[in-house]
Amino acid sequence: MKKIQLKKKDGTPMGDYVRVHERVMYFSNEEAFKGWLLETEILDTPDPEVARIRAWVTNELGQVFRSAHAEERKGDGFINASSHLENAETSAIGRVLGFCNIGIDTGIASYEEVANAVKQQDELPWMNHAQFDGLVVRMNAIKQPEKRKELVDNAYKTYKVKRDYRRQFEELIENRDMNI
Predict the structure, then answer these.
(1) CA distances, 170 to each of 90, 103, 149, 150, 153 (Å)
(2) Per residue in 112-164, pLDDT tens?
(3) Banded pLDDT at 76 (limits 50, 70, 90)
C-alpha cells in the first residue's frame, strides 16, 4: 500500500499514513478478506449539524469482526463546509480498517484528523492551573460521565492540555471525584 509522510508544521516527521482508499482497495482485493463485508450506517445525533457514522467489518460467517465510529460537524474546516457526512463516513471506514490492522503503522486516526489536531495544537494556548481547577470543580458537580466528557472535549478544543491534567480528567469522567 502506498504511504504518505505526515509532518508537523515545523517539518518534523510524525510517521507514515496510508490513505483510506488504499485501505479499502487492500480489503477488497486481499484473499484473507474474501467474503467479508465493510458496511456503514448513519447514526442519529441531537445536533442536525453533526454527522455520526458507524462502520463495521463482518467476516464470511456474518459475525462482526471490528467496528468504529466517526463524527464531523458541518462547517468545521474546508472539507466539512460541504461534505461533513461523507468525511465522517470516510473516517469511520479508515478507522475500522485500521482496527483490522490494515494500513496502520503508528496510529488509527485519519490524515485529516491528524492534520487538524496538529494545526489546532499550534494555535491553542496552554490550560493553566486555575483553568484546570475550575474545570475540576464543574466536573465534580456533574454525575453523568457523558456530560463530564463533553466538558473535557470542549476544553480540548480550547486549550492545549498537559498529560497529567488529561489523566486526571479521564478519572473524573469515570465519576471518581477529586479534591482540589
Answers:
(1) 28, 29, 8, 12, 11
(2) 566 665 565 567 788 888 888 888 888 888 888 888 888 888 888 888 888 88
(3) confident
19: pLDDT strictly greater than 80? yes
Q: What are the helix (H) ranges across the chain?
A: 20-29, 77-99, 111-123, 129-140, 145-158, 163-173
The H or E element spanning position 73 is: strand 64-73
Residue 174 DSSP SS3: coil
> By the 8 A CB rule, do 88 and 53 touch?
yes
Query: What b/e readout covers 52-90, taking b as 16+ CB neighbours within 10 angstroms?
Result: bbbbbbbeeeeeebbebebbbebeeeeebeeebbebbbb
pTM higher than 0.85, yes or no? no
